[in-house]
Amino acid sequence: MTGYFAKVFDHTWAIMKGMWITLKYMLRPSVTVHYPTEKLVPFEKFRGALLFDAETCISCNLCVKACPSTCIQLENATNPQTGKKIAKVDWYTIDYGKCNFCRLCEEACPTKPKSVWHSLDYEVLFFSRDEMVRCWKAGTPFTGKYWDRKEKAFKDPLGQISIQDVPARR
Amino acid sequence: MTASGSEPSQTPLASAAPAPKPAAKPAAKPAAKPLPEPVFNQRAGRLIRDTRYWPTELWKDPWASQSYRRGAAWLAGIILGIFATGWAVGELAPWGDRIYEAIVSFVSARGWPAVVGEAIWIVIKALIVLHVILINGLWAIWWERKISAHIQSRVGPTYAGGFHGWAQTILDGIKLLLKEDVTPTAADKWVHALAPAIVVVPVIIAFAPVSFGVELSAANLDVGVLYIFALAGISVIGIVMAGWASGNKYSLLGGLRASAQLVSYELPRAFSVVPVLMFAGSLNLQIIAQAQSGYWWGVVPRWFLFYPVVGQVAFAIFLIASIAETNRTPFDIPEAESELVSGFHTEYSGMKWSIFFLAEYGYVLLASFLLAAFFLGGGAAPLPWLSAIPSWIWMLSKALFMMFVFLWVRWTFPRFRADQLMDFNWKFLLPWSFANIALAGAYLLWI
Amino acid sequence: MSNDTALAAQEPKTLKTDTLFVNLGPQHPSTHGVLRVGLTIDGEMITKAVPDIGYLHRGTQKLAEVRGYHHCVVLTDRWDYVSAMPNNLVFCLAAEKLMGLKVPPRADALRVVMCELNRLASHLLFFGTYGIDIGAFTPFLYAFREREMILDLFEMVCGARLTYNYIRLGGVMVDVTPEWLAKTKEFLDYFKPRLDEYDTLLSFNPIFMARTQEVGLISAEKAVNWGLSGPNLRGSGVNYDVRKNDPYSGYEHYDFDVPLGKTGSCWDRYYCRVQEMRQSVRILEQALAMLPHGEVSATGVAKVPKPPSGESYAHVEGSRGDLGIFLVSDGQASPYRMHVKAPSFLNLAILQEILVGNKVSDVIAILGSVDIVLGEVDR
How far apart (Å, rounded) are the C-alpha atoms in residues C377 and C72? Predict the structure, then answer.
């Protein structure tokens, strides 16, 4: 009989303690970040959407080899006089649909600063499949352009919201 | 939506014109500036928070944060404001009498039969009670969201309406009204459509004898308690109908569970109130509330909750059985989101679905008012020197506090299993409610 | 058909009862991914349960045969996506065995730190979702609040929150900073009292104990026969932990206990994980205190490694059990064959036996307590 009452008391006590914990947290400030109006800046090493700088690229193909999902392709520029390949990139594409965000390309890049690197942009969305394939030529902005197959023109991607004005770059 | 990276260039890529130079060349790594408050980022058009706060930082000194202080001030202000309003308005019953007299004099001035005045008065009272339930739905869902959010270290709705998302439920209601009302192919159409009505109608009419304060109830029934329990039992038929008519296996299981659970928990719920009825000597809610007025030694209110042993046991059993009756979390096995995907209302959408919710919150409010009337002294002030504040404010605050207890329990505990639920009812609650009646009899005999 | 009607005619003319076939999943809130369990129920009792997998098959084992060794590490992230560090580690251990690489001590210690942090994150996810399975919603949010901090730590050190690609052949991706170490210590100090609160809130809640303590019993013999591993095996009282029995990455230097269950019930499996979180905190504190200095990556890791022909097997104690990997090399740049011994896959198999005879509510409790990740089951 005492065991029965002890059990009832124990269970009631355990339930009370649980309710005390929830009450305690109710009175504490919440940890929410109000996402669409407040955005976090990721940590410096964050692997966001890839950016590319055609000016510094030496067209060495190391990133192409490093990529585990073969989402990078590039073409060497040629010297218009001699027709020989030079250490400049003619065009460069990254298929974001395949990208693993693994930083192997950035690590492989031999230039300083890196020619291909992860920005902090985590808000990347694609309004069409065409937008997933970004391409760069000399003078293209870091975020690249995409080829719109319907309108047969290069266009600026709309769905990438940059978190910082100057992308983190090592 | 802003353009990305650097400025959107107007020149086509293929053209030879020098494209806009990409922003600052090898740009040194930007120094991470710790920003205490979010700043407005012109470029993104948004607030950007540069540092993420861990709970370790947030909870170190909550009063240091402005928003926390503001929230506490709002809360205190609202509570004080309600009490001040109540104090200014005074008792509601005389106001009702005045309106009634105005109607009667209006009717007699026109030479209409007196029954017309009575009918108008009844319609007004019925509409007020109906709106108590409808507004309660709006308020209770918002409160449930906010309380559950804060219990879980979240904030809940914040945007709709401006002040802590107060308009969220209204907007949700509009959304539900506009939603397509789907009836599954496998459903029994008539029963499927009738079930929500059968669930919600009893709760609306059960509110008739509920006292909202001293002398403040739609119908002063002498069998009030019996009437409420009798009507509340009808809703289970609607739930079983909903489960059966949906043509869904999960719903069927939910309906079966609901029938067993609700019928069982009626018993301890009714028996736990018997000691109250014995002490008060009446089934009338007004008289039960009046029986608890006054104070022991001038400080401890003579609420039934404070009767040694018998009061607390009855209160606990009635609270537990009420939670079970309203299908809320420790006892939400008919819904059981993680098992039955919502149980009996899986196949309902739009307004039919929201009617189930209206009924659920209606029952929560009903149970809260009953708890306040049976155990917390109805409209009596907890301390003698607070009696300047009218009874309806006390009744309302007690009921809302009990509603908070309902939410608090819901967001703390896991769910029973169907058979454990039955065990708990038949082997624990029911015997103890009988024992409690015997104890109350002993009190009445010898004390 | 005619047989059935003949049988029906023979039956006595009473109320006709029948079993009910219920599809639990693949779109059910409690199957933790895309598992489908075909349940035959009689009232609320399960008479037959058939787990059906394959909804998340991505073919990583086959894919590895055309990818380089560095690239395979990226693939491993996708098996058990809630604890990717042990996946990275087990592949690297197997490949390093093939290549004969020597991992520097600091890299080893960092691997242990990351794996234990990830075990915490994974067990927190289990804790939270198990609470939801049983019907308690609040522990889920509490667990995620803490898990978020661990993911922040991972983001700080390697830039990703889920698919880390941090542990690399011959070492780790990058060294940690003193700030990171300070943050981790801060987290551990914050986390220890939280564990006691979890115990109060869920582990020793009478309703929770009643729901889980006598449900889904797996005897030690049955657990071994079905090839269970990890907390599911230890919940049945079998003392087997790869970290103790076959230490790797210097686990032999750390002082920790292996929590064991008694009866093999859902609660034992659950509580094993909660206790493991305590042990992980212990390991982490030791590892952070005695973190050696030096390099974090072995020298001489080829850009395109071509290990000599041969085969190797490595296994680690992943968050869900004994995670093993079998690599065969034929001297080419990509593995000839990669086979994953995924603990979730083996743990899942026992469901068809232990679900039978339980109630529908218990199915959810048992399914949750086995803690499968469908990414690892299907690979």
Answer: 18
Which of B6, B10, B13 would best serve as a mutation to test chain A binding (most A beta carbons within 10 A)? B13
Domain ranges of chain B: 92-178, 182-446
Q: Which domain holds residue C73?
A: 50-378
DSSP state of A133: E
C25 domain residue, yes or no: no
Q: b vs e for C106-125, b when ≥16 Cβ sit within 10 Å of the residue's Cβ?
A: bbbbbbbbbbbbbbbbbbbb
Domain count, chain C: 1
Q: From CA B419, how far away is CA B324, in angstroms rounded? A: 14
In this structure, is residue C38 part of a structural domain? no
CB B364 within 8 A of CB B328: yes
Residue A43 makes CB contacts below 8 A (sequence gap 6+) with C152, C155, C156, C159
Helix (H, G, I), strand (E, B) or coil at B63: helix
CA distance B376 to B358: 25
User: Between β-strands B46-49 and A38-40, what pairing exists: parallel, antiparallel or unpaired?
Assistant: parallel
Report the distance separating Cα A164 and Cα B4, nearest Å: 10
- Taking CA atoms, C110 is separated from B437, C63, C125, C295, in Å, by 66, 28, 22, 11
For residues B363 and B350, what is the distance between their CA atoms, to the nearest angstrom? Answer: 21
Which single residue is written with the structure tokens 């914040």? B158
CA–CA gap between residue B264 and residue B258 (Å, rounded) = 10
The verdict on residue C2 lying in a domain is no
The two tokens of residue C347 are 């743990």
Chain C residue with minimum CA distance to B411? C138
Q: Are C70 and A68 in contact (CB under 8 A)?
A: yes
- Measured between CB atoms, does A31 come within 8 Å of chain B? yes
d(CA A32, CA B156): 9
Strands C337-341 and C321-329: antiparallel
Q: Give residue-wise pLDDT tens across range A115-158.
A: 888 888 787 888 888 888 888 887 787 778 888 888 888 888 77
Q: How far apart are CA C183 and CA C205, in angstroms?
A: 32
Q: Across the interface, which of A28, A44, A139 has its CB nearest the CB of B59? A: A28
- Candidates C29, C44, C363; nearest CB to B337: C29
Model confidence at B77, pLDDT cuts 50, 70, 90, reads: very high
- For A50-161, CATH number out of 3.90.1300.10, 3.30.2350.10, 3.40.50.360, 3.30.70.3270 equals 3.30.70.3270
Q: Does pTM top 0.90 for this prediction?
A: no
Q: Is residue C26 part of a domain?
A: no
User: B50 or B374: whose pLDDT is higher?
Assistant: B374
Contact present, C218 and C236 (Cβ < 8 Å): yes
Residue-wise pLDDT for C200-231, tens only, equals 888 888 888 888 888 888 888 888 998 888 89
Edge-to-edge order in the sheet of strand C310-318: C310-318, C321-329, C337-341
Task: Report the chain B residue with the minimal C-alpha distance to residue C152.
Answer: B52
Distance CA(C43)–CA(C20), nearest Å, equals 8
Q: How many CB atoms lie within 10 A of CB C66?
A: 10
Q: Taking the CA atoms of chain C, what radius of gyration do you get in angstroms?
A: 22
Q: What's residue B41's pLDDT?
A: 44
* Beta carbons of C205 and A68 less than 8 Å apart: no
Give just the sign of the alpha carbon dihedral B342, B346, B351, B352: negative
CATH number at residue C151: 1.10.645.10
Distance of CA B395 to the CA centre of its chain: 15
Q: Classify each residue of B75-97 as buried b or exposed e, where b means 16 or more C-beta atoms within 10 Å of its C-beta.
A: eeeeeeeebeebeeeebbbeebe
pLDDT computed for residue C1 by the predictor? 46
| C202 chain-B contacts, CB cut-off 8 A | 414
Task: Determine contact, residues A60/A67, Cβ cutoff 8 Å.
Answer: no
